[in-house]
From TrEMBL:
Annotated InterPro entries: EamA_dom (IPR000620), EmrE-like (IPR037185)
Keyword terms of this UniProt record: Membrane, Transmembrane, Transmembrane helix
Annotated GO CC locations: membrane
Annotated Low complexity bias: 1-21
Pfam families: EamA
Protein name (database record): EamA domain-containing protein
Transmembrane domains' residue ranges: 30-52, 58-76, 88-107, 113-131, 143-163, 169-189, 201-226, 288-307
Residue span, EamA domain: 27-159, 171-305
Sequence similarity: Belongs to the EamA transporter family.
Organism annotation: Actinacidiphila reveromycinica
Region called Disordered, residue ranges: 1-22
Transmembrane as UniProt keyword: yes
Xref: SUPFAM superfamilies: Multidrug resistance efflux transporter EmrE
Length: 311
């Protein structure tokens, strides 16, 4: 016979179980986020070591990723693609175009302005994310604003922000800033699509769109798509696995659970991560500011995660 006390305890037990499952899921997402950041941190060192046009590299990393995902998506996850619906599919295509715009804006900016300034401006992504959320009616807590600002300060400690009055450099600055905005829109679109679509379905449609758009950009700009040596192809393949399949794909996976604010803020760790990897792999001594910058960015990310947990 069930006592009144046992009956009353059931909702509390169920609530506790749900909270435990939620915390467990968040722990898994944070672990996957760490893997994703490690993957995208390899992007800059690999691109720097690859003797191929930047836009062509961006195209091939997406095209190769689509090649890997196609048999999986069309064979094992065909039903998920069918269930996406027009809205989710349309938003996934739009996200792919925005991701292509991010690559198309940022990579040319590296040749027009200083790498440090371009990096500092493109990493304004979490600021744009928070502003767009605010314009859409969301009210991010003060901790989110404070954590975002602190994380961006960490990037500035490492890269600096040396704005030039030269016309070409200013154009490059504008492109990098636009790339940061595009990355924020891409993150928010992905967060919206992942409410109803699976990671595989969304990623397949998104990367396919990005690859097609970047192919058009390469053909228009005259970027060579072939004629590389074996080492170059090997580095592009490594970039695909690390930065695209493990990096961007896992970001698409965790954005549903962690939210766009936390995910976009965590991406700032790519900057000190790339500096440390370049030091270990390419023999480039990491700047002295890399370690304090890493600590500051981690502090800002912790504030954003704390704000999200309180909410």
């Amino acid at each position: 016979m069930t006592t009144p006390e046992q009956t009353a305890a059931r909702p509390a037990a169920a609530s506790t179980a749900q909270a435990g499952a939620s915390e467990g899921g968040r722990g898994v997402d944070l672990a996957l986020l760490a893997v994703a950041i490690s993957g995208v941190s390899l992007s800059a060192p690999l691109i720097a070591a690859t003797a191929a046009p930047a836009l062509a590299i961006a195209f091939w990393r997406n095209a190769m990723a689509v090649g890997v995902l196609t048999p999986v998506a069309l064979w094992r996850h065909r039903g998920e693609l069918r269930r996406m619906g027009r809205r989710a599919t349309g938003l996934s295509v739009l996200a792919g175009l925005v991701l292509a715009a991010h690559f198309g804006l940022w990579l040319p900016s590296l040749g027009m302005t200083s790498v440090a300034t371009s990096t500092a401006l493109v990493t304004t992504t979490p600021i744009w994310t928070t502003l767009i959320l605010r314009l859409r009616g969301h009210r991010p807590p003060r901790l989110v604003w404070g954590g975002t600002a602190l994380a961006v300060v960490g990037v500035l400690i490492l890269t600096g922000l040396d704005l030039s009055t030269d016309g070409r450099a200013l154009a490059g600055d504008a492109l990098a800033l636009g790339a940061g905005l595009a990355a924020a829109v891409y993150m928010l679109l992905g967060s919206e699509v992942r409410r109803t679509a699976t990671t595989t379905a969304y990623t397949f449609v998104c990367y396919t769109t990005t690859a097609v758009a970047l192919l058009c950009a390469c053909l228009v700009s005259g970027s060579a798509l072939g004629g590389y040596d074996g080492r170059t192809w090997l580095k592009i393949a490594a970039l695909t696995v690390a930065a695209q399949l493990l990096g961007h794909s896992l970001l698409n996976r965790v954005v549903r659970g962690l939210g766009p604010s936390t995910t976009s803020t965590a991406i700032l760790l790519e900057t000190p991560g790339a500096a440390l990897i370049a030091g270990l792999w390419l023999g480039q001594t990491p700047p002295a500011a890399a370690y304090p910058a890493l600590a500051v960015i981690l502090g800002g990310l912790a504030l954003v995660i704390l704000a999200d947990r309180r909410r």
